[in-house]
Design a protein that fits this description.
The mean pLDDT is 96. Helices cover 88% and strands 0% of the residues. The relative contact order is 0.20. By secondary structure, it is an all-alpha fold. The radius of gyration is 8 Å and the shape is rod-shaped. The termini are far apart.
């Protein structure tokens, strides 16, 4: 489930920008 967490973090950063 680590990959999913990284994916969510990446999406969060992408949306934050």
């Amino acid at each position: 489930m680590k990959f999913t967490l990284i994916l969510i973090a990446f999406a969060a950063v992408f949306v934050s920008q």
